[in-house]
Amino acid sequence: MNSFSNEEFDFTFLDEGFTAKDILDQKINEVSSSDDKDAFYVADLGDVLKKHFRWYKALPRVTPFYAVKCNDSKAIVKTLAALGAGFDCASKTEIQLVQNIGVPPERIIYANPCKQISQIKHAANNGVQMMTFDSEVELMKVARAHPKAKLVLRIATDDSKAVCRLSVKFGATLKTSRLLLERAKELDLDIIGVSFHVGSGCTDPETFVQAISDARCVFDMGTELGFSMHLLDIGGGFPGSEDVKLKFEEITNVINPALDKYFPCDSGIRIIAEPGRYYVASAFTLAVNIIAKKVVLKEQSGSDDEDDINGKTLMYYVNDGVYGSFNCILYDHAHVKPVLQKRPKPDEGCYSCSIWGPTCDGLDRIVERFDMPELQVGDWMLFENMGAYTVAAASTFNGFQRPAIHYVMSRPAWQLMQQIKEQGFLAEEEEQDVSTLPLSCAWESGIEHHPATCASTSINV
Ligand SMILES: Cc1ncc(COP(=O)(O)O)c(C=O)c1O
Q1: Residue ranges of the Orn/DAP/Arg decarboxylase 2 N-terminal domain (predicted)?
Q2: pTM reported for the whole predicted model
Q3: Distance from the CA of 72 to the center of ligand 1, in angstroms?
Q4: Cβ contacts of residue 123 below 8 Å, gap of 6+?
Q5: Whole-number Cα distances in Å, 17 to 284, 285, 341, 410, 441
């Protein structure tokens, strides 16, 4: 049973047959005659629920501890808390965020191997015991600030085939692992297991197999030294959208046999993971508005590029950029592409276009080149799969505010979530085909409602 006593967040139900995209269109229509066309998100919480079912279907032995850093929106954290997920927190503030909504400390892992002493003490004072480390200095800090901690040794992986590498910064080698285990013994600390992260955008699932096998070696070393090793943490890096080289199930199909080989069910080892992007990427769609435009004629640009179709290129300036939501381009190596909100006419010509953010910085470019029909100031572009490492790291550089987020969820998804919250994850729910769930919803309070379709509500998850 998961019960939480916390503040509320708002979303609006949508009647059957409506999708999150319908809401987006509806919201755009509402502001069509005004000049007030700020960028905004529609986030489908039902999509998060759907991911949760997909997770347990693909990785039945692995409990997800959501990586809060990926998207720390309260609605996301509360939804996952209601579903019974654990949380990977990187800092005191993330621990506070999760604990403030009623998540018990046992469902938190402080998964940052290099922590400030005051923040280790905060974890100790608030009952958070599981934490990762990868160095001797960290062990000595923990011995002083949190001697009862349940430590998880983070090992390095071969993340050379990942888009975002993490083992350049974190993770002990196997040789160092032995020394660290010995040092922990001397310091009378408790090591309970091993963690790793294969990097994000991993293109080779065998990296997981190697990391799981390395973790086994470290488990054996720990057991030999007298530790009760019982936790394996397989980290994050699971894709959150379908536009990737390696699909989620292609990875999990490789992970499961490796878990069964190195950590068989009867070993009694608890297995957790730290998925971030997996849960949130596809739930968020961003709508941006064109605020300015330049037409560059071929003779002006001096370009010989045969691809400068129709004699001109177009530059669009939109009201969110790399200092805002599109920081994912810089920090997360994301490649984004726009979807046109207005369907183009079949005979409409295309132009080579670039898309820029609203700030005065030349770095603020979202798309270098994309071929599309000509658009006008006031038109909208949509960007899908924008839930991961977007809102979490967005700044207000140049005074541009972060887009509002409008949360939506269908009634069946909501009912299912309530059922899980009250009764836990039930076998028949796991068997239910969630792909048939109408996952569309309505929008947050503060926006006018379409009386025929939406009923706004404030719900305490
Ligand atoms: C320790 C740790 N765990 C989990 C994650 C989440 O990774 P992803 O969003 O790729 O699943 C990260 C991301 O940087 C991380 O550093």
Answers
A1: 46-281
A2: 0.91
A3: 13
A4: 92, 95, 110, 129, 131, 146, 149
A5: 19, 19, 20, 9, 9
Please give the full DSSP string across 317-350, using - where no structure is assigned.
EES--TTTTTHHHHHS------EESSPPPTT---
The residues that are catalytic are 360
Please state the CATH superfamily assignment of the domain spanning residues 46-279 in this structure: Alanine racemase (3.20.20.10)
Spacing, Cα 165 to ligand 1 middle (Å): 10
Ligand 1 pocket by Cβ (under 6 Å): 67, 70, 88, 111, 166, 197, 200, 235-238, 274-278, 388
Q: What is the pLDDT of residues 322-364, one digit of tens each?
A: 999 999 999 999 999 999 988 888 888 999 999 999 999 999 9
Q: What is the pLDDT of residues 277-292, one digit of tens each?
A: 999 999 999 999 999 9
Ligand 1 center to 256 CA (angstroms): 20
Amino acid at position 446, single letter: G
**Distance, CA of 307 to CA of 117 (rounded, Å):** 57
Instruction: Report which DSSP code applies to 170.
Output: S
- Residue ranges of E strands in 114-248: 130-133, 150-154, 190-195, 231-233
Nearest-atom index, ligand 1, CA of 277: 9
For 11-42+282-300+307-407, CATH number?
A: 2.40.37.10
